[in-house]
Structures are given as structure tokens and as C-alpha cells.
Design a protein that fits this description.
The complex is a heterodimer. Chain A has helices at about 15-25, 50-55, 65-70, and strands spanning about 5-10, 30-35, 35-40, 45-50, 70-75, 75-80, 80-85. By secondary structure, chain A is α+β, with helices and mostly antiparallel strands. Chain B is mostly helical. Chain B is built from 21 helices and four strands. Classes of the chains: A alpha+beta, B mainly alpha. Chains A and B meet through strand 1, helix 3, strand 5 and strand 6 of A and helix 3, helix 8, helix 9 and helix 12 of B.
């Protein structure tokens, strides 16, 4: 199966986001590089708004991800509650 | 009296609908084909523009909000870096040569991308891609601005950064990235989107903006790290534009497939050739390295790009043929490129050097199949010769490839001891190519590529001297005149790093930074 990824800057804003992603996607692998974290996952990766809100204690708009996002791969499906990356093959 | 209930805000999908399709209108007194004259001549058939949708569903109001936040963060770091003399916190002044290449080679491309997307966006009859292209166009001009601002901090202290815009249109190696974008913006709007939005942004920019920029952070350059990551977060959106456009075009009509496949083949190769500069930046020019070019290629092209092409197989899209050649070149590319710049270090706007022993050991470990066998002996020989006072600077000019404009430095696929050379006769003239892929690109559109402004040809024709130069006077030095035309100061901006003004200043300033003098 193909791998999707999301890469985020390493900073205080992204720490709870990365925690939420790892909790919601047990199959994801975290790769740390200078100043960035790349999260790889076989097939599919979901970023959930509610899991981030639980950790930061305030409302979170998934579009805030753009502020600290570096890069990603996969087909994107974004709703108000979830951002999913996936490959169809 | 009823309680006033706040009206529920629009959801992401409804808002996107209102802010894109809701702002569009049908023309009533002009024909649609007169308003969008470029929409059909490439042969791409679109039946329903409304089927195109931005998966991020980004609208202008959200765009301003998040981009403003990114700008605040970016300039906070750039200011802090400048106020704190951040240029002295980089690992080594050799590092700054990557910044010189970035400013002269890459930043003007951002500006061209801005122009290209403004034009492509205007040309599409559909509201969805038009809005996405508009935002990308704004992103690209922001990238050009933030890169120039961030890198101008270095211009106050180091040589070679003083005239990047002038150099971009003239200096021999800068014709490579320049010609890439000039080729893209002079294509039709669909080809432009496939070339830049898909092939370059989706398949290739990760190689520049992810491992190289992470490497900039590793070398203490917070300014470059910040603009690099800030730009690449826009790239994440640009990639979705590129990918959605490909899927959209292919879903609209089966006749579109062969046209799109040809563009993907062409632009993956052209983009890869431009990345030759990035290969040597990663392997030779970062004093502290994060990963080799070969490793980056394996992660971001073979793994990531491989997954992408597997996904697109359902439309009939195949992995570009050039991937096989590239797989054979990945052990050699950075070494061959650096060797060329070492040769021509008297005509470059940055310094060159032979890697230290421990750097060569790192290269051996990363390139066990090729480095010790083909490249280490040559570098060691050059080091010995330089120590004896025989530093070799090549004074003859190389043959350039008519398509990618790179000197013919690449070797035959599978034989790193033989230079790869191809030629084509066209209307009584002979044209030269670095590879089968560049030759094929030319053969498909010869009337476009015969017009290429090739720096070496132009120098030999006498078109690259300052105005008023008389090449017939006794003692005329053509190299000196060409460097004047480039605005490049001999002995300051070029030659070896060892002994350069940059090296001496950096050492002196860094010494002062830790002492009360």
C-alpha cells in the first residue's frame, strides 16, 4: 500500500496537533528532522478537529493547519471536522 | 418575544460554493470563447467546469486571515534574526553560497510563477480553478518578496548577492532555471498548470523546500528556514491544485489523456534537470548535512511520487519514462554538477571548494557505489594541484543542451565514464542535447526551442560584453568582459572560498562576537 504524509514545523502550535494525529492514527510513523516533523502513514491519515481541541482547550478551525503546515501528499478530503489524506491505490 | 438566535455560520462546503461559484456570472453580451481565447487551443476538452473543486475549499476571506498570520510569524523571525546578527550563527560562511544560489536562481522563479498563475487564472472559464489560481498567484509574489527580504540580510555582509535580478537574465548557469519558467509561461494555460502546478509543485518542490530547508535550519539559518517552510505551506495548497487539475482534466474527456501524459513526461524531466542545483546544494554546499540528494530523491520522488503515479494509474497515467534515467543518475548527479562548478568557479557568482576529508567520508557512506570509485580521486587530485598552486579554472566554454541549457556534463545512463551527447538536424542547423529526454522534447516543439537564448552561443557571438566594448583591441580579455556584463566582481564574488573575503570577514566577525574588542 502507498504512503501518505503530512509535514509540520516543529513548534508549540504543532505539538498538540502532532499528539492528536498520533493518537488518532496508531499506524502513523513520526520522523523528526531539523525544525520539522514528517508523519508518514500507510494508505490513509486523518487529522481530527475534536482531538486537537481536546488538547488545546479552545475551538480550532482545521484551516489553521495552514499556518504551520510544510507539505503533504495524498488526495485530500476536508470537512469542518476532519482532514483526510489517502491514496486510492 | 422570541429569543434572537445567532444565525448558524455557513459550513466549509457552503461557504466555498458562495465564495467561488456565487461570485461568477454568465456573460450576456460577449461570447464565452471571446472572453477565454486560450481555453481550447491546446486540445484539452472540458465539458463541465463546475466539477472542479478545491479540496481545501479555501476562500479569499480565510486566505487573508491565515496568510496574514503566517506573515506576522515570518517577519518576527526574520527581524529577530537580523537584530541578533543571525548571519554569524550559521555553521560556516561556505553555507552562505547556497543562499546566493537561492536568491539568484530560485527567487526570480517565484515572481514568474506569480505572473504565470495570474495569466492561467484569467484564462480558465471555470470559477473554481480561477479562484485557486488567483490565490496561488498572490502566494508566489509573497514568496518572491519574503525571499528577497530574508536574503537581503546577507547582502549587507557577503559578496555575490548585490545584483540578483540583473544576473538572472544574463549569467550562464541561471539560464537553466530561467528557461524552465519562460518555457512554462509561454505555453497554454493547461500546460502551464500541469508543468508548474503538477510536475514541479507536486512531484518536485518537496525536494527543494523540505530537506534543503530543514538543512538550512540545521546550519543555523533561521531566515531561510522560515521563508522556506512558510512558502512550502502554500505549496501544500498548490499541490492540491496541481493534483485536482490533473484529475479534473482526465475525468472530463478520454481524449485529454495523451496530451496530459506528454506534458507530465516533459515537465518532470525539465524540473528534475533544474533540481541539479539542489542536488549539489544538499551534498556539497551545506556544511552540516541532513540527508543526501539520493536519499531525498528516494523519499520524495520514488516513494511519494511513486504513490502518486500508482494512484493516477486508474486514469491511464503512467510514471514518466525519464524516471528510469533518473534512477541511474541519482548516484552521480550532485558530484558531476559540483565538479562542473568547480571548473567554472571563475565565472560563477559564488565560491567553490574541494570538500574536506570528513565531508568526502560522508559522501562515500552515502554513495558507496559511486563516490570512491569515480569522484573522490578527482577531487583529491584537484586538492593536490591547488596546494601546488595549480588551481584549475576552465577557460573554454562548454557545449550547452538546447533544451535544458545545462552544460553537457551528464553521463550516459549506466556508464558514468562517458559524456551523454545527442544531436538533431533541423532546417539546416545542428542542435545538441544532454539526453534522450531533452532531445525528444525538442523534436516535439522544435520551433519553440530553436529560439533558446543560450549563454555560451551568445558569448561567442559577442553579445555578452558591456556596451561599447571593443573585442579587437590588443590584450582583450573576453572572460573579464563577460564578468563585467554580469556585474560580477572578479576576485570578490567568484573563485575559491578558501582565501575569499567572505571567509576572512566571517572569521573576523565571529571572533568579535564572542569578545569585547
Amino acid at each position: 500500500m502507498s504512503t501518505v504524509f503530512i509535514a509540520l514545523q516543529t513548534n508549540e502550535d504543532t505539538r498538540p496537533i502532532i499528539e492528536a494525529i498520533t493518537a488518532d492514527n496508531p499506524h502513523a510513523r513520526i520522523n523528526e528532522a531539523p525544525a520539522m516533523v514528517k508523519i508518514d502513514a500507510e494508505g490513509k491519515l486523518t487529522v481530527r478537529r475534536s482531538s486537537i481541541e481536546e488538547r488545546i482547550g479552545r475551538d480550532f478551525d482545521l484551516q489553521e493547519l495552514h499556518i504551520n503546515l510544510i507539505s503533504l501528499s495524498g488526495n485530500i478530503d476536508e470537512t469542518d471536522d476532519e482532514l483526510t489524506l489517502s491514496w486510492n491505490a | 418575544m422570541d429569543m434572537q438566535v445567532a444565525k448558524k455560520k455557513l459550513g466549509l462546503k457552503e461557504k466555498y460554493q458562495v465564495m467561488t461559484r456565487g461570485l461568477d456570472w454568465e456573460p450576456s453580451y460577449q461570447k464565452k470563447e471571446d472572453i477565454y481565447p486560450y481555453a481550447s487551443y491546446e486540445g484539452i476538452k472540458i465539458h463541465d467546469w463546475d466539477k472542479w473543486e478545491d479540496p481545501f475549499r479555501l476562500t479569499m476571506d480565510a486566505y487573508w486571515k491565515y496568510q496574514a498570520e503566517k506573515e506576522r510569524k515570518l517577519y518576527a523571525i526574520i527581524d529577530a534574526y537580523a537584530q541578533n546578527n543571525g548571519h554569524l550563527s550559521v555553521t560556516d560562511a561556505r553555507y552562505i553560497n547556497t543562499v546566493k544560489l537561492f536568491l539568484t536562481g530560485v527567487s526570480p522563479l517565484e515572481y514568474m510563477a506569480h505572473r504565470g498563475f495570474a495569466h492561467a487564472g484569467r484564462a480558465f472559464p471555470g470559477a473554481g480553478p480561477r479562484v485557486a489560481c488567483l490565490m496561488q498567484s498572490l502566494d508566489e509574489i509573497r514568496h518572491a518578496q519574503t525571499q528577497i527580504h530574508a536574503l537581503s540580510n546577507y547582502n549587507k555582509h557577503y559578496n555575490g548577492l548585490h545584483d540578483f535580478r540583473h544576473m538572472h537574465d544574463r549569467v550562464w548557469y541561471l539560464s537553466v532555471p530561467k528557461s524552465f519558467f519562460d518555457d512554462a509561461v509561454t505555453a497554454g494555460p493547461f500546460e502551464f498548470l500541469v508543468s508548474i502546478g503538477f510536475s514541479f509543485e507536486y512531484v518536485l518542490t518537496n525536494l527543494l523546500f523540505v530537506p534543503f530547508v530543514s538543512g538550512a535550519a540545521y546550519n543555523g539559518d533561521m531566515g531561510t528556514m522560515t521563508f522556506g517552510f512558510s512558502a512550502q505551506s502554500d505549496e501544500a495548497r498548490h499541490m492540491t491544485l496541481g493534483l485536482e487539475v490533473i484529475k479534473f482534466i482526465l475525468e472530463q474527456d478520454p481524449d485529454n489523456l495523451p496530451i496530459v501524459q506528454r506534458w507530465i513526461d516533459k515537465w518532470t524531466w525539465r524540473g528534475y534537470r533544474v533540481l541539479t542545483l539542489v542536488a549539489m546544494m544538499m551534498d556539497y554546499m551545506l556544511p552540516k548535512r541532513t540527508m543526501s540528494w539520493k536519499e531525498a530523491w528516494e523519499v520524495y520522488f520514488e516513494e511519494n511520487g511513486g504513490a502518486l503515479f500508482k494512484d493516477l494509474a486508474r486514469y491511464g497515467i503512467k510514471m514518466p519514462k525519464c524516471a528510469e534515467t533518473i534512477a541511474l543518475e541519482k548516484d552521480h548527479l550532485s558530484h558531476q554538477a559540483w565538479a562542473t562548478f568547480y571548473n567554472y568557479g571563475a565565472a560563477a557568482a559564488f565560491h567553490t571548494w574541494v570538500p574536506e576529508k570528513e565531508e568526502m567520508d560522508w559522501l562515500s557512506a552515502k554513495y558507496p557505489e559511486s563516490f570512491d570509485k569515480y569522484y573522490r580521486p578527482r577531487l583529491e587530485y584537484w586538492r593536490e594541484q591547488a596546494a601546488k598552486g595549480n588551481r584549475f579554472y576552465n577557460k573554454t566554454l562548454p557545449m550547452l543542451c538546447q533544451t535544458c541549457q545545462i552544460p553537457m556534463l551528464f553521463t550516459e545512463p549506466g556508464d558514468p565514464t562517458k559524456i551523454c551527447y545527442r544531436e538533431v538536424d533541423y532546417k539546416g542547423s545542428k542542435y545538441h542535447f544532454c539526453s534522450d529526454h531533452c532531445k525528444e522534447i525538442f523534436e516535439h516543439e522544435p520551433e519553440k526551442y530553436v529560439q533558446s537564448w543560450l549563454p555560451v552561443h551568445q558569448i561567442y557571438q559577442g553579445n555578452c560584453f558591456p556596451e561599447g566594448t571593443d573585442p579587437t583591441v590588443e590584450g582583450f580579455d573576453p572572460l573579464a568582459a563577460v564578468l563585467q556584463y554580469y556585474h560580477l566582481e572578479f576576485g570578490r564574488d567568484n573563485l575559491d572560498f578558501e582565501g575569499s573575503e567572505d571567509q576572512k570577514n566571517f572569521d573576523a566577525w565571529r571572533g568579535q562576537a564572542t569578545k569585547n574588542v
